[in-house]
Write a structure and sequence with these properties.
The complex is a heterodimer of chains A (112) and B (243). Chain A is mainly alpha-helical. Chain A has two domains: 1-63, no CATH class; 65-112, no CATH class. Helix content of chain A is 83%, strand content 0%. Chain B is mainly alpha-helical and 243 residues long. Chain B is 70% helix and 0% strand. Chain B has 13 helices and no strands. Chain B has helices spanning 12-19, 21-40, 45-54, 58-69, 74-85, 91-95, 105-108, 114-123, 129-164, 166-171, 175-184, 191-209, 213-230. Residues 1-5 and 235-243 of chain B have low confidence and may be disordered. The chains are: A mainly alpha (112), B mainly alpha (243).
Chain lengths: 112, 243
């Protein structure tokens, strides 16, 4: 890589790190200044609402299969159902994911 | 991996490692693809690994090597990379109320990807304060290591791996939506939240289907927030509050 390209990599890396880090420092300062004992009270309401919605949006993006044909969508739907069913019964993190991946894999294999 | 109660873990970093394992299903195949594409775009194995180590942001890395290979001006490459990653600015403040005073936290924010944020946002509030640093370190380091390792694997042997086990690369990424589903499901606590979350999921999926993957996350979250503020129900289910 040329020097200019290295600089571009470093600038992208530093910029990305700062976008992850500086808002934390801002929020920590805000929390320290707040007279409230409950940290959640110091967080702007819109920010607290945006957090779960960002996770929901990441879910929406990841639900779209790489190849958007009918069999991939069917596998996704069955994988989602199995994941939710196992989560509903166990309320845990690991088993629902393992069951969902297994169900998705079985459907992909059968239809592939 | 119970999510139900605040409880002390004997080794929080190990619990963090264990709970981040589902992330690997999504990270490793995508990192292998990145390694392969970087090599095809003219980068060396080491260069691909260094980009994954330092930038550590999936979509923007693909854009970076793609634009460089296409001969785009480097200032534009940097601007586009940062624009795609701009959504990360809302992640750390959402975790801040649960972070302790350790000086390690700012440096650990390098590992705050979409997926690590989703996991930490659900798990940190359930852990005792003394265990949060260890848990986050374990989870974030495993995710980072898998991204770097996957990139190296893809750069060295990506083509052979994809040819030999095409199904594995197709099936394992479902671990990501399955994990997010488990993280989002407990948040459907009222009709107001259900509508906002459902809208965000549907809009993000629709935008992605139409090729707008990079804009999908911030746009869908903004639409979900709009739903949350515009639609108010008089009666909420299960006696839960709206906010």
């Amino acid at each position: 890589m040329s020097s200019a390209l290295w600089l571009a990599v470093l600038a992208s890396a530093a910029g990305t790190l700062l976008m992850r880090l500086l808002p934390l420092l801002w929020m920590q300062r805000r929390l320290q200044k707040s007279a409230s004992e409950d940290g959640l009270e110091a967080m702007p309401q819109w920010l607290g609402i945006l957090g779960p919605l960002m996770i929901a949006a990441v879910l929406g993006v990841s639900l779209v299969p790489a190849t958007t044909d009918a069999s991939s969508w069917l596998a996704t739907a069955i994988g989602v159902l199995v994941t939710l069913l196992v989560w509903w019964r166990l309320r845990s993190l690991g088993w629902p994911v393992a069951a969902g991946v297994a169900a998705y894999g079985v459907v992909v294999t059968l239809l592939g | 991996m119970s999510q139900q109660a605040t409880h002390a873990l004997p080794r929080p970093w190990l619990a963090g490692l264990r709970e981040a394992i589902p992330l690997l299903g999504g990270y490793v195949p995508v990192a292998i693809s990145f390694g392969l594409i970087a090599i095809q775009a003219g980068f060396s194995t080491w260069e691909a690994v260094i980009i994954s180590t330092l930038v550590y942001a999936g979509a923007s890395q693909f854009l970076f090597v793609g634009m460089v290979a296409a001969g785009a001006p480097l200032w534009l490459v940097v601007v586009m990379t940062l624009l795609i990653n701009a959504r990360h600015v809302v992640y750390a403040p959402n975790l801040a109320p649960w972070l302790t005073t350790s000086r390690w936290w700012p440096w650990l924010m390098h590992g705050l990807t979409d997926q690590v944020f989703a996991l930490a946002h659900s798990r940190l509030p359930q852990l005792p304060a003394s265990q949060r640093l260890g848990w986050f370190t374990g989870a974030a380091l495993l995710a980072w290591a898998s991204w770097i390792g996957g990139t190296a694997l893809g750069a060295v042997a990506g083509e052979e791996l994809i040819t030999r086990w095409p199904l594995l690369g197709e099936v394992m990424p479902f671990a990501l939506p399955a994990l997010f589903l488990v993280l989002v499901a407990p948040r459907f606590t009222s009709r107001r939240w259900s509508l906002a979350l459902g809208s965000a999921i549907a809009i993000a999926a629709l935008l992605t289907v139409n090729g707008l993957t990079n804009a999908a996350i911030p746009l869908a979250a903004a639409c979900g927030a709009l739903c949350f503020y515009l639609v108010k129900f008089d009666v909420t289910t299960r006696g839960e509050r709206d906010e």
